[in-house]
Amino acid sequence: MASLLNRVQSLPKGFIWGGATAAYQVEGATKVDGKGKTMWDDYLQAQGRFSPDPASDFYHRYPEDIALSKKYGLNAIRLSIAWTRIFPKGYGEPVQAGVDYYHRLFKECLDNGITPYVSLHHFDSPKTLFDDGDWLNRKNIDYFVDYAKFCFDEFKEVKNWFTINELISLAFSQYIQGNFPPNHHFDVTSAIQAQHNELLAHARVVNLFKDGGYDGRIGLIHVLQPVYPYPVTPENQHAADLDDAFMNAFLLDGTFKGEYTPKTMKLINEILDANDAHLDIQLGDMDILKKASTRNDFFGLNYYQPSFFAAYDGDSTNTFNGTGTKGTTSFKFKGVGQAVKNPDIPTTDWDWNIDPEGLYDILKRVSIEYPNIKEIFITENGLGMKEDLPEGVTDDTIIDDPKRIDFVDQHVAALLKARSEGVNVNGYFIWSLQDQFSWANGYNKRYGLFFVDFTNQKRYVKKSALWYKELADTMPK
Ligand code: BG6
């Protein structure tokens, strides 16, 4: 900690030190004030594992969470707008109550010196559009552009926008891993098409923002997962390259080069061929991507873990660890490779690799390979754990979470190292601000700086929040 404290003093004034949230994961209040259903509501109800209500009741308790953010030294917060609070079906007439809510929320942030960084889409597609194919239906892109324009015209107080959060996670979870609705497994055509269509939606919105001369900055968020061969052999290297193309390079190319480079497409085509899959790129699509590729003001980079890959020549199969029972994840992708465990790398209860070096590597890589990236923020990074309230808890109880402090300490150190070598990374948002439910895991996977007792919505401070404040206080103001 001592060395980290010294080193954060080298950060520029105004370095972003934030906490991240997503509307559906924190707001609750899914049935009030005219809100429409997302792709999750009926699905979660049918599944019966957990309910999106009351979540962290942020819809009502946002003043408390923003007050905590201020008290613990944060200067920014990542929020998302729930599309269905504004347009219940994704299109049509806006709902005033939803619009008013977000004006109140942004005002509360700004009045407290907390800059809102706002995403337009964070995994919560409107149910009506989802039923019509979600991102696989190109009409969805038009509706998204209309919704974005409405938000830019209405929420003038917001100066920092992200279009879409983690395009790959959505496509991968929906169509490859099968743990997000509509729960397809290894539907490679849909997964690659959804990525391309989401990129198009992003690019059209960026072009609209820039052509419209809106006052502010705009970008998008990708989660990057460096892929290493394990052990290092030429065959395993090729498997890692294939997985990297599917998980990282295709989207990075499309966003920041405005083309899918021949190197990436060779790998993608190998995957498509092996899976009898195809990608439909229509006339004019690449021009839209090209035009937007130099116009992103910043890049939100989410980082949790790298993966380790080995060659594999069987059929696709996977199991998903949605409970926090170690050792229950497996992933074998026909025509790509299989995820393997690297015994030198510790893992969480959800089998996520803990490897801060991966963050350093990926920051270096994107800054070299994608010169169109102007500025980077780490828009999510954090540790998901099972945590309980201790016996005899009082209002003043501080929840001890040394593993989270350690995790963030190591990852911030990796960020600083990359920065000292010239990578223009100017912010860090911990995932997450307060505890919130996890899409495919429910309420037992906690990431927050602030503990939420989901039975009564009381907030308790964790030691990581005290630690976070100590760093914030050390940074140049
Ligand atoms: C990111 C998402 O993929 O990872 C968040 O943007 C999500 O919404 C976070 O909660 C952590 O993932 P998980 O599955 O542990 O909740």
UniProtKB/TrEMBL annotation:
GO terms for molecular function: 6-phospho-beta-galactosidase activity; beta-glucosidase activity. GO terms for biological process: lactose catabolic process via tagatose-6-phosphate. Keywords: Glycosidase, Hydrolase. The keyword Lipid biosynthesis does not apply. The active site is at E380 (nucleophile). It comes from the Bacteria. The keyword Hydrolase applies. It catalyses: a 6-phospho-beta-D-galactoside + H2O = D-galactose 6-phosphate + an alcohol. InterPro entries: 6P-beta-galactosidase, GH, GH_1_N_CS, Glyco_hydro_1, Glyco_hydro_1_AS. Its EC number is 3.2.1.85. Pathway: Carbohydrate metabolism; lactose degradation; D-galactose 6-phosphate and beta-D-glucose from lactose 6-phosphate: step 1/1. GO terms for cellular component: cytosol. Belongs to the glycosyl hydrolase 1 family. This is 6-phospho-beta-galactosidase.
